């Protein structure tokens, strides 16, 4: 009987140990899986990925065409047509500032597309380098697609690229499109 008690004790002891090891292993697996899930969640970016394209809205192209054929006033009229600032004094002021750049830099020669970013289906940020005889003018067209087509609610330009083009765009530009006055 003593011998059978020992076997029973070993079996009981072994089952307790197996049970303890089994619970510990299950906990370990649960902790590992949980940490993997948490780590994966932390690695996923919290911001939306912004789409990129190269299709310039027609209103931007219309302004460049008007500028090439009829000058600054025609360009601003085309660029701001239908926008909230159309006809506003601020638009006239922008056109006058543009004339000053033109008088310093010389004749317009065309433009280079730096990048177009589409943060939402109806919004495009068009970053352009306008080329003149003596230097570039950097432009940011904030385009919005309304019911009747594209408009430009906001237009900024500067001879210093960093003032109108974000660094992450400026230093990763792709130069996808180039238009000259001969085209």
Features:
single chain; 183 residues; alpha+beta; Nuclear Transport Factor 2, Chain: A; 6-stranded antiparallel sheet; 5 helices; globular
Mean pLDDT across all amino acids: 78
List the helices and strands in order. Answer: HEHHHEEEEHE
| Secondary-structure class | alpha+beta
- State which percent range the strand residues make up: 25-35%
- CATH architecture designation of the largest domain: Roll
Ends distance = 107 Å
Which descriptor suits the 3D outline? globular
CATH class of the largest domain: Alpha Beta
DSSP strand tally: 6
Tell me the quaternary state: single chain
Q: Count the DSSP helices.
A: 5
Q: CATH topology of the largest domain, which one?
A: Nuclear Transport Factor 2, Chain: A
Characterize the biggest β-sheet.
6 strands, antiparallel
Computed Rg: 32 Å
Describe this structure in words.
The chain is of the alpha+beta class. It is built from five helices and six strands, in the order αβαααββββαβ. Helix 2 runs antiparallel to helix 3 (72-80) and helix 3 packs across helix 4 (89-105). The radius of gyration is 32 Å and the shape is globular. The relative contact order is 0.13. Residues 1-11 and 36-51 have low confidence and may be disordered.
Summarize the SSE layout with pairings.
Elements: H1 2-43, E1 51-53, H2 58-70, H3 72-80, H4 89-105, E2 108-120, E3 123-132, E4 135-146, E5 149-158, H5 167-170, E6 177-180
Antiparallel strand pairs: 1-2, 2-3, 2-6, 3-4, 4-5
Helix pairs in contact: 2-3, 3-4
């Amino acid at each position: 009987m003593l011998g059978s008690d020992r076997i029973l004790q070993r079996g009981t002891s072994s089952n307790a140990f197996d049970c303890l090891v089994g619970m510990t292993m299950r906990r370990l697996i649960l902790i590992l899986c949980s940490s993997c899930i948490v780590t994966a969640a932390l690695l996923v970016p919290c911001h939306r990925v912004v789409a990129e394209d190269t299709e310039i809205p027609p209103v931007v192209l219309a302004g460049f065409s008007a500028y090439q054929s009829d000058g600054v006033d025609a360009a601003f009229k085309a660029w701001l047509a239908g926008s909230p600032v159309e006809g506003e004094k601020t638009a006239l002021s922008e056109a006058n500032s543009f004339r000053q750049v033109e008088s310093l830099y010389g004749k317009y020669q065309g433009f280079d597309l730096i990048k177009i970013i589409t943060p939402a289906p109806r919004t495009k940020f068009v970053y352009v380098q306008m080329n003149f005889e003596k230097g570039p003018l950097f432009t940011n067209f904030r385009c919005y697609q309304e019911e009747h087509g594209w408009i430009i609610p906001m237009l900024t330009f500067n001879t210093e690229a960093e003032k109108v083009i974000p660094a992450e765009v400026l230093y990763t530009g792709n130069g996808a499109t180039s238009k000259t006055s001969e085209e």
